[in-house]
Amino acid sequence: MRSLKARLEELFEKLFAHYGAQNWWPADSPFEVMLGAVLTQNTAWTNVEKAIHNLKSLSELNPQALITMPRESLAQAIRPSGYYNLKAERVQNLCGLLLDNPALHRLDDPQLREQLLGVTGIGPETADDILLYAFHRPVFVIDAYTRRLLGRIGWVDGYVPYEALRQTIEQALVGEASYYNEFHALIVIHAKSVCCKQPRCNACHLSGLCNYAADSRP
């Protein structure tokens, strides 16, 4: 069997050839990326866009403005994202970290990740979204889309803990942040449009790689 590195590189090439550059993350500033990473927990991105639009109509989008905003006002503004009271608290927790640590960007990757994970409401996936898309650090985000695609292809057998899977991919596919950024974005668009919960295998250009597609053929 070919190495995981070779297989991942082929997957990237096929996705990129089909979809092209995705230019992620859709945001006007690194702070907006961080905000979106918190708000997108357990909701669709369209709902996050509505929440961010509401916030922009109320105030400047920066940590100082949001941490001083009354919690109730913040919660109502981000209501479209769901779990709005909980997320308002998480947003202000994140703002507190940023304001208390103006030199956060100077930390190395493990230290920065540890600081983010120390914020109540920020787990590994959200922390890695922020590391990759806001701080441009080379981390591979493991989300539901990544698990679904790699699981169906047959490269992930059963449940693999977040850290184990992230480290396996990063060790196999050492790359710059821009490469991980593009790869993750391509996985997301493919998992949303083709490799959905109810997969559209007949429309998939990856069927030659995929165990699930092979098993589904008559």
Automatic annotation (TrEMBL):
Ranges for domain HhH-GPD: 39-193
Annotated CDD domains: ENDO3c (cd00056)
Gene Ontology biological process terms in this record: base-excision repair
Any one Pfam family match given in the protein's UniProt record, by short name: HhH-GPD
MF terms (GO), sorted A to Z: 4 iron, 4 sulfur cluster binding; catalytic activity; metal ion binding
UniProt KW keywords: 4Fe-4S, Iron, Iron-sulfur, Metal-binding
PANTHER family on file: A/G-SPECIFIC ADENINE GLYCOSYLASE/ENDONUCLEASE III (PTHR10359), DNA REPAIR GLYCOSYLASE MJ1434-RELATED (PTHR10359:SF19)
Protein name per its UniProtKB record: HhH-GPD domain-containing protein
Species per Swiss-Prot/TrEMBL record: Candidatus Thiodiazotropha endoloripes
